[in-house]
Amino acid sequence: MNFEGLDPGLGEYTPGLDSSMDPRLDPALLQGVELDPDALAVPVSESMHIVEGMYSELHSVAAEVGIPVTATHFDLQEELLWMGNHRGHASSFFGPTMGRYSSFQVHMTDDIRHIQSMDTGVLFLTKNNLKCLTRGGLIMFDYTTEEGADMHSLILTDNNTLLMGGRQNYVAELVLTTVQETQKFTVEVPGVAIMRQSNRFFFCGHTSGKVSLRDLRTFKMEHEFDAFSGSLSDFDIHGNLLAACGFSSRGLNGLSCDRFLMVYDLRMMRAITPLQVHVDPLFLRFIPTYTSRLAIISQTGQCQFCEPTGLANLADIFHVNTVGQLLMSFDVSSSKQALSFGDSGGCVHLWSSAPEVSFNSYSRETELALPCLVDSLPQLDWNHELMPLSLLPMPLTSTEPLLSDWPTSLITPSPRYDYTSFNLFLTSSFEQLCIYKYFKITSKRCMLEDTLRYKCYFISILYVLLHLICCTSIYLEFEPVRCLVQNHLCQKEFCLACELGFLFHMLDLSRGDPCQASNFLRAFRTIPEASALGLILADSDEQTGKARLGRLIQSWNRFILAQLHQETLEQEGPQAYRGASSSTLGSSGESVIGRLFGCEVENSSLCRCGKETVRSSLTLLFTIHYPEQNKMIEEYDFAEILKKSICLEQSTQAWCDNCEKYQPTVQTRNIRCLPDVLVINCEVNSAKEAEFWKTQTEVRLISPLVARIYSHAFTKFSHKSTLKYPLMLYTAVGLTESEEAEGASVYDLVAIVSHIQDARTGGNLVAHIKVGETYHQRKEGVTHQQWYLFNDFLIEPIDKAESAQFDVNWKVPAVLYYVKRNYHPKYDLRIKNPIDASVLLTEASLARKQRKSHATFIPLMVNEMLQAADLVGLDAEFVTLNQVSVKHFNGTNEGVVDYLTQYSGIKPGDLDAKISSKHLTTLKSTYLKLRFLIDTGVRFVGHGLQKDFRVINLMVPKEQVIDTVYLFHMPRKRMISLRFLAWYFLDLNIQSETHDSIEDARTALQLYRKYLELSHNGGQEEFRKVLKALYEKGRKLDWKVPDIDSADGQGSPKSTAVFPSVMGL
């Protein structure tokens, strides 16, 4: 391959030309480059005679002869000089003597374009690959960019991330700890070939000859310098100066190397006097020692030193002896004492300012290989009687096995990775287990929940402040329950099944964003049974730790199962919401909750007189009854305890109709069939039960639970070994025919709720949940199972053995959930959205005195229903939730639909259904309307919608939200109020007396139309100028709208209708 014309641009500081335009990548383009013959004729003698005490050649080494050196880099931690060549090979040289330290292949075909050293390794960038290797050549990670990428440069940032740029129109951000690409920053001018960083900006050199200055946090462009008309070759920054060299366009003659260096003052953001040099500059670098001097290097090896604000002197030129080769790369050490050059012939040249040179001011010691020292071995007399046979070397044998070899049936190759943990159970105390502690979130911090971002899609389960919700999140893992509540819809205002369905729907839409359960908790607090069971805690009880959370969660478990069973058992008809899809329940009245959790039991009471009374009932959970303990410590089997708890037999005083008095009665409970989900309350509410768990933990060896459960009244219970933790009921490879005939069932543990005890705060509740393949496939696109720890908003993967370990000194079991294997085929797991367009039709007002003549809206007709991508304006005013107004972007009729009253300026009685003249409706009705619009794909326009949706408790996809507070906002500037924007852009005076949500929604739509007009007509640059003028005007007025009744009299009447057809909720 002919490398003539290749010059330094693929090294650490990549020049800014596209590969199709760069003369260093396309030799044919060099034919049009004009070089000054006078400058080439300048006589250059030995460097030591020209500039005494400056830089001179210290050492040269040939890495690979004939292969161009495309990148050189001084190691920032050790005394090493790195080089990479055109064929993807890297080598390192130690110290000023240039002794080869390591050499290895980085890429098989692509050239190395950038080298960057770190504390733990060295980064090598090729065309579409980033590889990190140790200084000895071991791979730490190998990251491949997306197809079609052409990377040229990278830069390390301060927060353990790096940025990569190239010919594409974006800069990729990569996190080094996880080796994952977090985001892509779009650049306006494609082709980022050089990147630098200061304490104020990121600097990007583009192939078009421009240099852009970008924000350190958002990467948005703040300033731009148009340096050269052809292309950018190199640039560097120091202090408040930026110097750049490049090529200028000469029309039909192609590109010409420009001998004027462009110098910019970063304080005033403007160019100062250009610097004319006597060589054709291709590389430049600031070498600040006593002064801020510049080193300018040409492709032919000439190097000139000059001050950026002074005049260049011919006496400051020296020549790199490349023996006719072209320079391909250049770098300066961090100590500024050494320079390195790589040429097209495969040689690396080291220049220094002193014979004893250090690459870094403080370098750590480089680990060198020990010298090979081979001592002469002593002579062995094999005839000596006392010489051991082990000293004799093993003779070479044939392929036949030795007599001492073990048979292949008894040996196996050692695995490369041992996935079995040597410490299966925790040994740390509770004080060291931070993940189990209670994470208290103050109200002020709760306002920032939208800033919480999780890297895993699964970690959006729940983010609320109530301990009991950790138990509700378990039911999300049961697919029949999830499908049931999302198909359920009724007219009850406070229905837990409906609210749970809304909550699960938000979790399905979420991609890592936290979801609140405020509407669910609101409905929960209105149910009398919740107060009767003591589930609603006072703030003082929770803060002082008086709440008994272990007993509370078990009462909650009974309540939520019974409530969901009752609400889903109600038939379609008067309670069904109009327009809702048909229920999945049959006409028999059996609910899915009953089929999933319910167990038919027979309660038998036998009196002393011999009369037996039998009653059938349905129970949704069971409670463990512990045996009486004596002084002798005895081992108990969990399966036997479970059997006696389910098939309970006890003696008590009960009323006998035959004897007509209370008599000692033997009560027995037998089951007819087992449920698909077995819910067990552990009832560890006293020191007696805690001592039982503690004793059993101490006397048992670790072994899995192996037990068979038979469907006919637990007639048989068997086990293969003792147990310590209830991990699984009956673990076996398969069931025999006899076992299947006897009705054996296999149950797996899928969830555990535990009480973490803390004497100071009262403790907290955590849940260990085994997330199955179905949920992982739906949220993350992977098929595997994993145990997770749920501790409020903290969710961590955890080992299954740790999840089933209980130390009652701090971790007490509360509820266990077992599921039957392969139970899903019994249930219909399809989700049919029960909300349709009928929710938007007119409905009766709750106000008794509301008259039709006073209606402030025109209801939507069937043919006016909104479609996907339609625009509506939205604004909400809250007492808790007072008014939501939605305004159509394009319509034919004038009018405003105001279903709820105004928040600001509200009069006594406006919210009272008995005397109000307004059109009133329920929160659930409003929620369903907005939910239908979201499901339809309608886009919402408003001002500050993030808070509105959070209070309404809705999850809206980001692509359906257009927030004017961000449309008219500049980075690192304040947010601007809707009133000021309306005055500045629309000449409207809104919110002068009270807040009107309809007026605000209409104004947001007008502002969005104004934004489209400004951005389309003038482009982004003109729109930035408009925003700057807006902020300047706001600062002058202190962001206060001038009095509308002043002399200038600007404004518009509030009754002016700018856009027709208003629809309100």
Automatic annotation (TrEMBL):
Gene3D superfamilies: Cysteine proteinases, Ribonuclease H-like superfamily/Ribonuclease H, YVTN repeat-like/Quinoprotein amine dehydrogenase. Pfam families: PAN2_N, RNase_T, UCH_1. GO terms for molecular function: nucleic acid binding; poly(A)-specific ribonuclease activity. InterPro entries: PAN2-PAN3_catalytic_subunit, PAN2_N, PAN2_UCH_dom, Papain-like_cys_pep_sf, Ribonucl_H, RNaseH-like_sf, RNaseH_sf, USP. GO terms for cellular component: P-body; PAN complex. PROSITE patterns: USP_3. GO terms for biological process: nuclear-transcribed mRNA poly(A) tail shortening. This is PAB-dependent poly(A)-specific ribonuclease subunit PAN2-like. It comes from Sinocyclocheilus anshuiensis.
